[in-house]
Write a sequence for this structure.
């Protein structure tokens, strides 16, 4: 009988512990408390190619002065306007914010404005903002140079065979994204650009594969890759400088390699909630 009572006592203890754990879990998931996470801010994180002049090594052929192309871009803006952003962030340095905002306001007042050298900012961001009634637009870029060809300029002793084979034709190693992008329509091209697999490729080709390059005892490839990570982290910090609330809806327009990094940063950041780009880019 004594052993039976001990058994009952121990079983009761385990039952109480189980109940407490269950209640604790339910409270964390379902019951509003002061510890509840801050409401997340919806973000449409949109990647593009540069539609005007760019210093990027890889360029996409696109005549930004062609009226038909401009109309195609405006059609994309019309699709994206369903997101109804209250804030637009673009790949421009914050020091130019006053100039951007002045130019944007002028465009809203006169949509027939002809820009001398339009980029995706003038062609897409301004039109999207005009259609959505967006009042706030900011640049979040941070310029930093890095040498993505470092492996060709040093005596690579890490893995030169792989490095040279990879960079001879990077897309060859990603059959699911090896498409003729330049032959696609603008809509298809942007849809393709925003696919997760292509964004993964951009991170690998721009940074991660540089870790196969270095001289004996040194880390030249990794150090160059770190510069690009650093640039994107600084850009992300610039975004976090913007005064945003739960009532805001944020649209980010950048070159797709930055979009790829921001996708990863925001996927772990409880402040933001990325919406599905393809709910709008149909």
């Amino acid at each position: 009988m004594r052993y039976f009572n001990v058994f009952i006592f121990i079983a009761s203890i385990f039952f109480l512990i189980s109940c407490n754990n269950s209640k604790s879990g339910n409270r964390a998931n379902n019951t509003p408390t002061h510890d509840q996470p801050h409401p997340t801010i919806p973000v449409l994180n949109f990647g593009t190619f540069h539609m005007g002049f760019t210093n990027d090594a890889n360029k996409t052929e696109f005549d930004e002065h062609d009226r038909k192309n401009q109309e195609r871009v405006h059609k994309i803006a019309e699709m994206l306007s369903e997101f109804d952003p209250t804030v637009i962030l673009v790949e421009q340095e914050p020091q130019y914010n006053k100039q951007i905002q002045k130019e944007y306001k002028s465009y809203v007042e006169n949509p027939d404005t002809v820009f001398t050298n339009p980029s995706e900012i003038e062609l897409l961001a301004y039109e999207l903002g005009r259609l959505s009634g967006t009042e706030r637009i900011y640049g979040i870029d941070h310029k930093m140079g890095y040498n993505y060809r470092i492996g060709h300029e040093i005596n690579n002793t890490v893995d030169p065979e792989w490095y040279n084979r990879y960079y001879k034709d990077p897309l060859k190693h990603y059959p699911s994204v090896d498409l003729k992008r330049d032959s696609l329509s603008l809509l298809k091209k942007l849809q393709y650009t925003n696919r997760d697999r292509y964004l993964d490729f951009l991170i690998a080709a721009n940074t991660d594969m540089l870790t196969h390059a270095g001289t004996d005892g040194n880390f030249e490839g990794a150090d160059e890759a770190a510069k690009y990570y650093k640039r994107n982290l600084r850009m992300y910090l610039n975004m976090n400088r913007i005064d945003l609330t739960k009532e805001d809806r944020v649209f980010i327009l950048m070159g797709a390699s930055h979009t790829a990094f921001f996708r990863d940063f925001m996927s772990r950041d409880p402040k933001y909630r990325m919406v599905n780009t393809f709910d709008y880019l149909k």
Q: What stands out?
A: The radius of gyration is 25 Å.
